[in-house]
Amino acid sequence: MTLHLVDRAEAYSNRTAIVVEEDAYTYSDLLRVSSIVATRLLSGRKNLNAGRICILVPPGWDYVVTLWGIWRAGGVAVPMAISHPPAELAHVIEDVKPEAIIAHPTLFAQINNLADERGLPVLDGSTLSQEIPLCEIPIVQEEGPSMILYTSGTTGRPKGVVLTHKNIRSQVESLTVAWGWDHDDHILLHLPLHHVHGIVNVLLSALWNGSTCEIFPQFNAVEVWERLSHRNITLYMAVPTIYRRLIEAWKRANSATRTAWASGAGACRLSVSGSAALPVTTLEMWEEITGQRLLERYGMTEIGMALSNPLDGERRPGYVGKALPGIEVRLVDEANHLV
Question: Which end of the chain is more exposed for a tag (fewer CB within 10 A), N or C?
């Protein structure tokens, strides 16, 4: 069985998959270039056989084709935080024991010494997509591992969580139903791409549905407002801190700019907040500015998304909603008795 994510991309071939600044890439581009990356990674082998490959590449086209290329070659992707210092990157490398690291040239200084000390090859993520004759792409089982993501917010050192391709499929199918994704959606992405929020909720949910994912390499409040003001972004997802920074930027703007920004954000069919508790004051201020009541949800690296306020219906301040489609939830006391 081939990966359903890839199969679905073939059906959306001429649609725009990824936008980065002035460049737009179709699903056909994604399939072709990820095949090139897979061919380079295989380097004569028939399958990476769940070999682990770390990714240290900024958000953008190179990141997306690297992720897909690893998967299509039968490997396991280990996205790392481009903002982390060498000591934190070293923890991931020591824990995951990759066979290689794919890094962007702008990040070589962060990784080269760590790789040299461990005898690991560092592959240039900006050149992996250069044209070469393609090899036969292996069949990858959905039951097999796809990614190792590292937890945040826990005590002790971050812990690696193994997600299978089937895990990812289950998550994006659930979010598609819950949040009404379809191929006409256009989502803005500026979240980090080493956590579930940015990778699964935004990037892969968009690509699963034939939607367009527009990637900003980093967050800038004014640039986000200006982009939203074009009124063709249908979905927006961020963390509470980002919403607060957007509100602060809006307050500093003049009256005409405020009106244009608020109108653009209000044109989104859905705005979602997650990864941390959403202060009620932030929810209320965002609704006052844009007319949009944020949809708050809850998930974990270990399980993906579990709870969500409804797409249609009451979204209660201070609550994270009910179980998502396909999810079972129960509330227990300290003795594990149902409450």
Answer: C
Architecture in CATH for domain 170-323: 3-Layer(aba) Sandwich (3.40)
How far, rounded to the nearest angstrom, does the alpha carbon of residue 266 sit from its chain's CA centroid? 23
pLDDT digits (tens, 9 = 90+) for 151-208: 976 678 899 999 999 999 999 999 999 999 999 999 999 999 999 999 999 999 999 9
- Number of CB atoms found within 10 A of residue 139's CB: 10
| Nearest by Cα to 102 from 84, 75, 83 | 75
Residues 6+ apart with CB under 8 A from 35: 69, 72, 134, 137
**Nearest C-alpha neighbor of 304 from the set 209, 175, 145:** 175
d(CA 206, CA 12): 12
CATH number of 4-163: 3.40.50.980
What's the pLDDT score for residue 152? 78
Q: Do domains 4-163 and 170-323 have the same CATH topology?
A: yes
Which residue from 124, 136, 138 is spatially nearest to 48, judged by alpha carbons?
138
Mean local confidence (pLDDT), 68-87: 97
The chain-wide mean pLDDT, for the chain, equals 96
Query: Is the predicted pLDDT of residue 1 greater than 50, yes or no?
Result: no
Q: What is the pLDDT of residue 227?
A: 98
CA-to-CA distance for 189 and 216, rounded, in angstroms?
6
pLDDT at 90 over 70: yes
Alpha-carbon dihedral angle through residues 213, 214, 220, 225, given to the nearest 10 degrees:
-90
Percent of the chain residues past pLDDT 90, beyond the cut:
96
Annotated domain spans of the chain: 4-163, 170-323
Supply φ then ψ for residue 63, to 5 degrees. Answer: -65, -50
- pLDDT attached to residue 153: 60
Residue 338's SS3 state is strand
In this structure, is the dihedral angle defined by the CA atoms of residues 86, 90, 91 and 96, taken in order, positive or negative? Answer: positive
Exposed / middle / buried, residue 281 (Cβ in 10 Å: 0-12, 13-18, 19+): exposed
